[in-house]
Amino acid sequence: MKKFSTTQIDLIACLVDGQCHSGNDLGLKLNISRTAIWKRITQLIELGLPIQRIPQKGYRLTAPLILLDSQAISQQLHLTHFNRPVDFHLFASIDSTNRYLKELPHSNTINICCAEMQNAGRGRFGRQWYSPFGENIYCSSRWHFDCDLSRLSGLSLVVSLAILATLHDVGIQDHIGVKWPNDILWHDKKLCGSLIEVIAESNSGADVVIGIGLNVNSITKDHSLPDKAWCSLYDITGHYLDRNIIIAKLINQLNIHLKEFMLGGFAAFIQKWHAVDYLQGQTITVSNLNKPLNGKAMGVNESGQLILMDDEGLTHYLSSGDASLHAMR
Questions:
Q1: What does the alpha-carbon distance between residue 156 and residue 39 come to, in Å, rounded to a whole number?
Q2: Of 56, 77, 201, 211, which sits 20 to 30 A from 252 (CA to CA)?
Q3: pLDDT greater than 60 at residue 96
Q4: How many CA atoms lie within 13 A of 91 on its CB side?
């Protein structure tokens, strides 16, 4: 778990223009020696920053970079009229943003943990989440629910709808769908996923950590993954986006959707879900703790369960599992 030093932040600020800067010039600006500049550049490269060393000339960033900034996120939240207390925990690198929040004591504020890079980011079923430095959003938030755990049925689907609303806020609407329960897809490629973990329960309610991995500025054609096709907002828009703005919009949409969820349960969202249901009417296989089930996806019910009609005409209601299409559309 690492945070940037003030000198590292100042050094990155000198490089964000994309121009080549000599070690001597950087040393004069930061009032440190050229050797100290070299050491700090080495540290940043080891973290994963795209810094190029050019012999006899100096250093330059090879890709645009806007660091995560709690003040910038707070300013953007203010624009949405969000007025709940928030504590930010921002890191240069961390093993898992979800794990960090799970270990915090209970508080009355919303805790948000974001990192430039995760060393052990996880998706559902323990899958590793690819987390390159400074490109994407690795964001976990901790919320308290004053209700019995049974009322949280369908929460993961509501989180997926909040993510979709965030994407709409930044102008991404076409060819987007949700693969039950929590994969956001664009043209059959994974754009975003979420992981929800209940970390405390009592008679008065539960604390829940919502982890979200959203691919923002990765150029995915340069980094194919062996297990799935993936994409980023850069692939969709053709330009780099400020992650601080997106994180603020995401927190705001989570707050809006979770409030509505507490009032009306998942039933209040079922029509919205049907409009973006990626699996609706498709022949699928669902893998879970038992043997895989094959059949036709018939939507979801008011508890957020997947309705699956098998080859014998029997209807199954599934609360968890990993769904895959028999053949991609």
A1: 44
A2: 201
A3: yes
A4: 21
* CA 90 to chain CA mean position, Å: 14
Which H helix or E strand runs over 26? Answer: helix 23-30
* CB-based burial, 288-320: b 16+ in 10 Å, e otherwise: eeeeebebebbbbeeebbbbbeeeeeeeeebee
3-state helix, strand, coil in the chain (%, to 5): 35, 30, 35
Q: If you average pLDDT over residues 144-172, what whole number do you get?
A: 94
Structure confidence at residue 130 (pLDDT)? 66
Structure tokens at 138: 């690795």
**Ordered alpha helix ranges (H), 147-285:** 155-169, 233-237, 243-264, 270-276
**What is the pLDDT, as a whole number, of residue 125?**
45
Report the C-alpha dihedral over residues 99, 196, 112, 171, rounded to 10 degrees: 140
CB 258 within 8 A of CB 143: yes
What band does 129 get if pLDDT is binned at 50, 70 and 90? low
Q: What tens digit of pLDDT does each residue of 256-280 get? A: 999 999 999 999 999 999 999 999 9
Q: Are 183 and 193 in contact (CB under 8 A)?
A: yes
Specify the pTM. 0.91
Rounded to 10 degrees, the C-alpha dihedral 51/62/65/222 comes to -110
User: How many Cβ atoms sit within 10 Å of the Cβ of residue 166?
Assistant: 25
Tokens 């009306």 -> residue: 264
Instruction: Give the C-alpha distances (Å, rounded to integers) separating 214 from 74, 152, 182, 260, 280.
Output: 19, 23, 12, 23, 23
Domains along the sequence of the chain with CATH = 6-61 (1.10.10.10), 70-274 (3.30.930.10), 279-325 (2.30.30.100)
